[in-house]
């Protein structure tokens, strides 16, 4: 599988480092993660770090000889609604990128591919017309 194939991004990625937030905050509620999956022939995803949770609508972008995954997201921070955008690429097998919150913070991040610590059958579920990330059991 080549790195120009978007499928290299699919799966669960454990966030190991963020420019703005310490690891204690990243893993505050659940182990901080970003996850990409195919749903209805579209790449979708979810992420959570600290009290920030988002649902992703993803696209591929090729720049020079590199492939990136870009997304818009909506979700929440604590109990406040949130939205933004982000991007990531692979560097030596590590996912590196940046997450932006509209009218708020943005942070670079690094993540490594891991087995998902959750047990649900699907990474994303639809409830009441909204996307919800899988919850730990």
In CATH, the topology is named Lipocalin
Q: Which series of helices and strands comes N to C?
A: EHEEEEEEEEE
Provide the CATH top-level class: Mainly Beta
- Tell me, what's the shape? globular
Please state roughly what percent of the residues sit in beta strands, choosing from under 5%, 5-15%, 15-25%, 25-35%, 35-45% or over 45%. over 45%
Rg over CA atoms: 14 Å
Gap between N and C termini = 33 Å
Main sheet: which strands, in order across?
1-2-3-4-5-6-7-8
Number of helices, counting only DSSP H or I runs of 4 residues or more:
1
Structural class call reads mainly beta
- How many strand segments? 10
Tell me the helix content: under 10%
Quick overview of this protein structure:
The chain has 137 residues and is mostly beta strands.
Q: What does this 3D model show about the protein?
A:
This protein is 3% helix and 61% strand. With 137 residues, the chain is an all-beta fold. The protein has one domain (6-114): Lipocalin (Beta Barrel). The strands form 2 sheets. An 8-stranded antiparallel barrel has the order 1-2-3-4-5-6-7-8. A two-stranded antiparallel ribbon has the order 9-10. It starts with 10 loop residues before the first strand and ends with a strand. The model is unreliable at 125-131 (pLDDT under 50).
């Amino acid at each position: 599988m080549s790195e120009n194939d978007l499928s290299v991004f699919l799966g669960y990625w454990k966030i190991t480092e963020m420019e703005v937030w310490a690891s204690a905050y990243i893993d505050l509620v659940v182990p901080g993660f970003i996850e990409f999956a195919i749903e209805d022939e579209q790449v979708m995803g979810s992420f959570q770090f600290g009290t920030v949770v988002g649902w992703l609508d993803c696209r591929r972008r090729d720049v020079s000889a590199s492939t990136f995954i870009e997304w818009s997201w909506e979700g929440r921070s604590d109990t406040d609604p949130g939205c933004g955008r982000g991007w990531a690429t692979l560097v030596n097998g590590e996912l590196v990128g940046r997450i932006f919150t509209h009218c708020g913070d943005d942070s670079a991040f690094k993540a490594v591919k891991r087995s998902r610590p959750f047990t649900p059958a699907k990474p994303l579920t639809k409830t009441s017309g909204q996307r919800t990330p899988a919850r730990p059991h």
